[in-house]
Predict the structure.
Amino acid sequence: MDAVIGKLSALACCAALALGASPGKVFPYAYTQEDLPNGLRLVVVPTGFPNIVATYIVVQAGSRNEVEPGHTGFAHLFEHLMFKGTEKFPQAKYTNALQVMGAASNAYTTADYTCYYTVVSKQDLPTVMEMEADRFQNLKVSQPEFKTESLAVLGEYNKNSSNPMVKLDEVVNQTAFERSTYRHTTMGFLKDIQDMPNQYDYALQFFDRYYRPEYTTILVVGDVKAAAVRALATRFWGSWKRGSYKAEIPQEGSQTEPRTAQVEWPTPTLPAVDIAYKGPAYTDTAKDTAALEALAFLAFSPISDLYQRLVVTEQKAAALYASAPEQVDPALFEIVVRPQRAADLDYVRDQVYEAVKTFREKPVDPTLLDTVRKHLRYGLEIQMQSSDAIAGILARYVALRRTPETLNRLYDQLSALTPEDIRAAADRYLTDDNRTTVTLVGAKPQPATAEAK
Amino acid sequence: MKLLVALLAAASAFAQIRLLSNFAKAPLVTFRIVFTTGAAADPPGKPGLAALTAHLLSDGGTRTLTYRQVEDALFPMAGSVAVQVDKEMTAFSGVTHVDNLAAYFKLLRARLVEPGFREEDFTRVKENLINAIRSSLRNNDEELAKEVLYENIFHGTPYGDYNLGTVESLEKLTLDDVKSFYQSQYSQTNLFLAIAGGYPAGFPEQMKKDFRSLPEGAGFRPRSKLAPMINVSRVVIVEKPTRSAAISIGFPMITTRNVADYPALLVANSYLGQHRVSYGLLYQQMREARGLNYGDYSYIEYFPNGGQRMEPPPNLARHQQIFQIWVRPVEPQNAHFAVRMAMYELDKLIREGIPQDGFERARDFVSRYVNFLTRTENARLGYSIDSIWYGIGPYAEMLHNALPKVTREDVNAAIRRNLRTNRLVITVVANHAEDLKRQLASDEPSPITYNSPKPESVTKEDKAIEKWPLHLKAEDITIVPADKVP
């Protein structure tokens, strides 16, 4: 277990560890972190921004946890169901209470976690803590409500479905993975979404398994004092029962040859190639995650030679970007390039392959690596413009390792990277056998006419 | 944290650059630089010119530095220059750590005051905007429905084109067009400079001096012109292969922030359809009670890209707004019912008024949510600029003063004065447009079926909704292929 965790009990409530912001650490705020006896973790971050308090509740269950076939999309469905109310706070009462607070309140689901947030003025924090604790422990969803809500999820699928990049993402995951639950997107497969109305019991089981204190971290960020928040947590969340379920998440086997697929889109669209390599699971005790994060910028951002050639000089591509995996299980390092014309698909794809080969062979310029480090550090600081923005950043890292320290550790790894580390990571993960390439092509545009109205 | 608005003395020989500064002990410095020009100033036949000009500034090289050199210099600071172009305003914004303030500001200023206007930047940026229409907008059914609605309502006025223009017009625009637009519109009199955060003493005044190389006066500006009268409701169906039907409904409205009805109407709209939260009536009735779709909201101000953002961006001030209902994509067989249901709820609100409890909650919400909307330096600067443009006091303060005095009767009167269910435009992005056209024109009943039992209150209302008369005629329903808009 993590060394910085304090245990909280009603008698010994001073065991929480207060962590001062240390010079050199990327997360600039002092915070406290402690565990209730039931395993619920509480992180409190006073930010100095006045009045507003952001409560972000992170449950370490996302689409990754959907292990049974036919039940993709349930973490996300459950996020919707969490707004259905309890005996004490039926849906209308819960919604009305948030409304009069002027609350910004919503939730989102990712592959690894589900996050519920409520942003209010500081005097409303006790009510928020009470209502949130109540729904996490006493949620009540009737079967008709469940069925209706499953249609809102289908509506969400529908509104995403006009975007060809969403389809591309679906096909990349489905092609790259065979056993990993990252094979399906967080929305889930359409056939599973359409079958959701029939899966009431499974949804209740999902709640019973994962909506437990040991899977949950509460982040309270803003105009707050740790002691007062701790008292609220003990009062409202203290009696929540610990669970016992541990998911057996299937692990992906190794890939032995390159894979390809194609998406044909029924309307005109800018083409795209998504080149995805199987990367590592998130780590901040080794260099792999940090090295791939830096590589994404060195090789494919606007400072890279490839970007300058394809996007700026030749203008054959409209966009080029890459994203490194920061997920619980091994996930994809993805490079996306969007050629202006479908005829250039092979050319831009081969240019990416060529660049990957170069980065596998040659260590990068240390000055450029330093530039990327600065970019990431300042980029993070620039995002921290409000308490809710800070909470949103922390939620991602708390979902991985249940502590804001995760962020500091990742940036410590970034600071320690050498050019050889980048080359080694590229050589280890960005291999041909480890690669999935999916292309997107649209219908041919009709010739433009003068009549546009 | 009172925002300081310093206007140069009128007696000075200089044009008035409006400077807003808000010092705060913070590691970041936020810039918001707004020119009071935009798509409404596009010359006839050249829609998209304001957008192309602004994007070429924010995403191009400068007189002395190539695009790559600027990007290379911005990269280590994680710096960028964001741009938003609307009808009356073009807003550039950026944030920097105070460590990099001087270097960042130098690049920001050079991009706006000493643009490079290189041919290779021009072709790249122009291609990006064409792709944004052809590939992004036309593959986002909800945004497409909204923008077609706006185009249709304001057709023939300076607000009548999509902000990025059309594919055809963009293809014809030249670098000389851009240079001439820049020369005439990017002037000191059109300029708001706003800065907030941990800048050193004297920085804002220096910044003002640094923008003095812009021309002083404003060039040609078209007179604002009211949207044409809608005599009879009409429908535009944008046809494309798609799973579902995306719907927007609206009409032009003269109430803007500087009109007395605004605070009351804001309360009414929050009750009916507050954006992306579960409090609104449309959301409660259409999504929560019936599972029609992912969400249903209403608006009294332009709100682009609502699918991507939770809060309205500032600096979209306009002389005229529209009232709009956004029905997120529904299953095609429910499109007719969904249009009727939106109209039914609007009609009920107009006829019966806002209920007392709904009024109180919505008023509470609006008066407190404004604190959330203005919580960042960037938002505070943006809202302040808008307030000056509208000639009203600081936005949050204005609402905090006005809302306690707003009564339920005021809200109902504002609803009656501003909202209506006839003489409006409905846009739908859908497949099988002819079928939908036939259904809408026939006014035949459109019963809905559910996958679970519904309370009597719902089924009883459904009986009224499925027959709610839309009074649409076939000749007022147009079908347009998606690749012809905008």
